[in-house]
Write a structure and sequence with these properties.
Layout lengths: L13 H33 L4 H16 L2 H24 L9 H27 L2 H9 L4 H31 L11 H12 L2 H30 L7
Length: 236
């Protein structure tokens, strides 16, 4: 195995893997953030008293979690381009090919999946908050905003963090799937390098090591966040 091929510069692939890793991290962070936004909205709908909103949120989580993520990527990427071209032709009489930004489509695709799983984590965390704490806050005269900020939100975060850590790891791994739409993340760089240099084991092993490093750093980061969120909480 020739490791000099992974050196930095014009004759190596070290810089390509570096920028591919940055792309993987960027997509994962943006997708996870987009997923949290979707999850907060879907959780609110699921916990509302309106049956129509509950059905809509349940449909979203059931469908997205029930189909392969790769199929979601194909549907959103190619379906989005087709829809945009149809609108452009029908409304503006524009018939040239239009392609949506690959990075944006990657974030949307992965974020949809991340949001579906995050919804169930956040919903479970909200339901795990003892009703007595909310009732006590009402009894001492806290308004809705204060109860949310000082009572509900801190407890939801504490209960949700372990599950959201798992969702983050899932989101990080799912970034590898967007290689099929041409985004230059770790797996895409490994595929190109393996085909170009005829050393598939070297390049895919490098990709594996990079993902393991990211996963390990993520674990340490989440443990630190959980420790911060649980400060002052008495152990059972």
């Amino acid at each position: 195995m020739d490791l000099t091929i992974l050196s930095w510069g014009a004759n190596g692939w070290g810089d390509e893997f570096f920028y591919g890793t940055l792309m993987t991290i960027s997509v994962a962070i943006c997708s996870f953030g987009f997923g949290i936004v979707l999850a907060v909205g879907a959780t609110t709908m699921k916990l509302s008293s309106y049956k129509s909103l509950q059905a809509l949120a349940n449909g979203y989580t059931t469908i997205v979690r029930g189909i392969p993520e790769l199929l979601v990527i194909y549907l959103v990427f190619y379906g989005g381009n087709t829809l945009l071209m149809s609108v452009a032709k029908g409304v503006f009489n524009y018939s040239d090919y239009i392609e949506l930004p690959v990075f944006l489509m990657g974030v949307v695709c992965i974020g949809l999946s991340s949001g579906a799983y995050s919804t169930e984590v956040i919903r479970g965390a909200v339901l795990a908050v003892p009703t007595g704490t909310i009732e006590a806050a009402k009894a001492v005269g806290m308004n809705t905003a204060t109860r949310f900020r000082r009572i509900l939100f801190p407890q939801v975060v504490r209960y949700a963090l372990p599950g959201l850590g798992n969702v983050w790891q899932l989101t990080l791994k799912e970034t590898s799937l967007i290689s099929v739409i041409g985004l230059a993340e770790i797996v895409r760089i490994a595929q190109i390098g393996a085909g170009s240099e005829k050393q598939p084991f070297t390049f895919f092993l490098t990709g594996l090591i990079l993902f393991l490093i990211l996963a390990s750093l993520s674990d340490k980061g989440y443990l630190s966040i959980e420790k911060w969120a649980n400060r002052g909480v008495r152990s059972s």
